[in-house]
Amino acid sequence: MVEFTHVINNLKLSSNLWPQRPFLSIEMSMQTLSVVGRLRNCGLLKTRGLIGGKWTDAYDGRTIQVNNPADGEVIATVPCMGEMETKDAISAAYDAFTHWSKLTAADRSSRLRNWYNLLIAHKQEIGQLLTLEQGKPLREAIAEPVGVVGAITPWNFPIAMIARKVGPALACGCTVVIKPSELTPLTALAAAELALQSGIPPGVLNVVMGDPPSIGDSLLESTQVRKITFTGSTGVGKKLMAGASETVKKVSLELGGNAPCIIFDDADLELAVKGSLSTKFNNTGQQCVCTNRILVQEGIYDRFINAYSNAVQNLKVGNGLSEGVTQGPLINEAAVMKVDSLVQDAISKGAKVIMGGKRHSLGFSFYEPTIIGDVRNEMPIAREEVFGPVAPIIRFKTEEEAIQIANDTNSGLAAYAFTNCIQRSWRVSEALEYGMVGVNEGSISTEVAPFGGYKQSGLGREGSKYGLDDYLEIKYVCMGNM
Ligand code: NAD
Predict the structure, then answer these.
(1) What is the pLDDT of residues 61-116, one digit of tens each?
(2) Which terminus in the chain has less CB density within 10 A, N or C?
(3) Distance from C-alpha of 360 to C-alpha of 111, rounded to nearest angstrom
(4) How far is CA 22 from CA 25, 104, 164, in A?
């Protein structure tokens, strides 16, 4: 109660200082209130878009709600922006480009470093922030920044995806209009506030959110926007790629995956269980690099299923703010319905539920951690991105068969293999048609390695030195007879 009174007093005090419209739901839980209170106190709960350094409402006053997926409570309202606001954000970014791109690489680098420091200093308040990439000095003699960049990001990693795009873009001298997912705009706005505090000039980084097609179309139609960088579903990525052709923009796409995780007979069982558990169940299965199919060789099948079931049994489902919880809710009820329909379809076609297989007793957006055996690769559950806490298991006999099943998909983002044979490690990682392969390792993502996919999983790479390439133009100048 003391803590609650303290939170309320803090909220009251900070709301007097806060010039924005009231947004708190009176039914908010104490846990949520405490997080919101801390965010407000440090000025990181922004509920307006950012255009040319000014916090801005939608011009027609429309708003959208941001909900907590654990219980549906409204935690904020943000503007529902569209064409007009996006055009103004593009103009602001275009104007800012002239100055920003002329700064030295060292100057941009030091401001990006300030931003990084601020994000790290506030990581408790704004949740799990992934490390921002440091701006590196560029050899400007051979490369020029492309110009204004439109960055469209998904809900499943609301800040990491922005870091991956905005870090290299700003380092190269580009300016950016970000469109975060309407489901999770608050971390993007908090990051933008810290960017302003770090000395990144107004207009260099702008944030608009609201109506995705009208914001997307405005970015695509503008001749001032020279590049679209997108992370999200393959369907939306294809639309953006088609739309970008009209003005011949550069396009980077980080799209959906259908990752296989192959467990060979000669694998270290403990390592295989640990690795395949994390690649399947991290973020409640809502990652593009999440294992979508576990392929298990027949000699280890029963032992693996036993050990894996024990491990899955120990996962703790609940509100992500509660101590010890390892499995949060899915993003919304529609996601739960999609996961459940894939599971029920697989069961109707002969797959067997080993564990779970239904909505969780916690209700709302929760689904039971699930293992399904006897899955075949032609079933929809093995062809679509499940994006939930469901592990479909496919049995195989030979290495060749495993490679054939693993590659039998239009996706090619991440793949995993567990084996103790070094020759097999090389053979398999070369044969897998995937942009990223983890061998005896379930956690492959790092800012120093190139992240991206083959086939319909996308175009271009983010992270590492390759992540800078798409934000630069190469110019050849031939000076003769001087
Ligand atoms: P989504 O494609 O539905 O949405 C992504 C973003 O696009 C959101 O900001 C959304 O508002 C916007 N959008 C939707 N329609 C649009 C339109 N017509 N014009 C412009 N913008 C539009 O994806 P999601 O559900 O937010 O995220 C999940 C998907 O993202 C999964 O498929 C996942 O695999 C993928 N993903 C890929 C990576 C990667 O690096 N490859 C990383 C994370 C997520």
Answers:
(1) 999 998 877 777 788 899 999 999 999 999 999 999 999 999 988 899 999 999 98
(2) C
(3) 46
(4) 9, 42, 32
Q: What percent of the chain has pLDDT over 90?
A: 69
The response to whether residue 467 sits with its C-beta less than 6 Å from ligand 1 reads: no
**Cα distance between residue 76 and residue 24, in whole Å:** 6
What's the pLDDT at 33? 66
- Give mean pLDDT, residues 278-303: 96
Torsion of CA 129, 133, 134, 135, to 10 degrees: -130
- The residues facing 253 across adjacent strands are 230, 459
254 is catalytic: yes
- Evaluate: CB of 409 within 6 angstroms of ligand 1: no
Active site residue 174: no
The span from the CA of 194 to the CA of 192, in Å, is 5
Q: The whole model's pTM is what?
A: 0.86
Alpha-carbon span 44 to 159, nearest angstrom: 14
CB 463 within 8 A of CB 133: yes
Count the neighbouring beta carbons within 10 Å of the beta carbon of residue 434. Answer: 26
Q: What angle do CA 71, 183, 222 make, to 5 degrees?
A: 175
What per-residue confidence (pLDDT) applies to 18?
Answer: 28
More confident residue, 477 or 202: 202
Ligand 1 pocket, 231 CB below 6 A? Answer: yes
Choose the catalytic residue: 254, 368, 385, 462.
254
Amino acid letter for position 395: R
User: Closest Cα to atom 13, ligand 1: which residue?
Assistant: 212
- Residue identified by tokens 């000395």 is 199
- With H, G, I as helix, E, B as strand and everything else as coil, classify residue 81: strand
Q: Which candidate in 288, 290, 447, 462 is catalytic?
A: 288
Q: CA-CA distance, 257 to 384, in Å (whole number)?
A: 9
The Cα-based distances of 254 to 230, 289, 324 in angstroms read 6, 11, 32
As a whole number of angstroms, the distance between CA 317 and CA 150 comes to 37
Q: Can you tell me the distance from the alpha carbon of 391 to that of 373, in angstroms, rounded to the nearest whole number?
A: 9
Q: In angstroms, what CA-CA distances link 374 with 296, 349, 371, 382, 419?
A: 11, 10, 10, 11, 22
Cβ-based neighbours of 64, under 8 Å, separated by 6 or more? 77, 78, 79, 80, 182, 209, 210
Element (H, E) at 51: strand 49-51
Instruction: Please give the span between the terminal C-alpha atoms of the chain, in angstroms, as a whole number.
Output: 80
- Across the strands, what pairs with 118? none
